[in-house]
Amino acid sequence: MPNAPYRIYAVRYAHRACNTSEAFYGDYHKAPMTMDYFVWALTNGAETVVVDLGFTEAVGTRRGRQFLRCPGKGLAEIGVEAASVKHVILSHFHYDHVGNHALFPHATFYVQDSEMAFFGRPVMSLSATIRLGSRNRKSAAASCESSRAAFCM
């Protein structure tokens, strides 16, 4: 299956009710809204790339989110075993994007250079980078030098 087409899955794992002022900077209307949380899987059956990792149940509960299922369980429901995933792209280091890194022990994590630089500044909290420190980490520039790389397309 070397050239099989990739399918993209949005895996919903949490939900919350809020208002627009909580979700959008500069919005003072406070209109009611709901918000869902997803992790993404791109797979062709042989290779899988996961985009973002969601938050853990403990963190979601503390923040008042309705935790529907562990993102790892949601991935398993579409045939993706988190422990077997080799590539994870982290769009940014917010709590709802990096919380389940321990579910991916064999993955290399890909992060933008600018995101690493931002969180690496002395004035910023290093907790996200420290938690990822024992894992493989590659910056976008080093990992995606060529758009021909399957996980960079």
Salient structural properties:
153 residues, alpha/beta, Metallo-beta-lactamase, Chain A, seven-stranded mixed beta sheet, 7 helices, 28% strand, globular, disordered C terminus
What does this structure look like?
The protein is globular, with a radius of gyration of 16 Å. A seven-stranded mixed sheet has the order 4-1-2-3-5-6-7. It has a single domain, classed as Ribonuclease Z/Hydroxyacylglutathione hydrolase-like (Metallo-beta-lactamase, Chain A, 4-Layer Sandwich). The protein has seven helices and seven strands; from the N terminus they run βαββαβαβαβααβα. By secondary structure, it is α/β, with parallel strands linked by helices.
Number of helices: 7
What would the average pLDDT be, to the nearest integer? 83
What class do helices, strands and sheet pairing give?
alpha/beta
Major β-sheet annotation: 7 strands, mixed
How much β-strand is present in the residues?
25-35%
| Rg on CA atoms, Å | 16 Å
What is the name of the CATH architecture? 4-Layer Sandwich
Can you tell me the residue ranges where pLDDT is under 50 for at least 5 consecutive residues? 123-136, 139-153
Tell me how many strands there are.
7
- Overall tally of structural domains: 1
CATH superfamily grouping = Ribonuclease Z/Hydroxyacylglutathione hydrolase-like
Reported by name, the CATH topology is Metallo-beta-lactamase, Chain A
Task: Give the topology string: H per helix, E per strand.
Answer: EHEEHEHEHEHHEH
What percentage of residues falls in helices of 4 or more residues? 25-40%
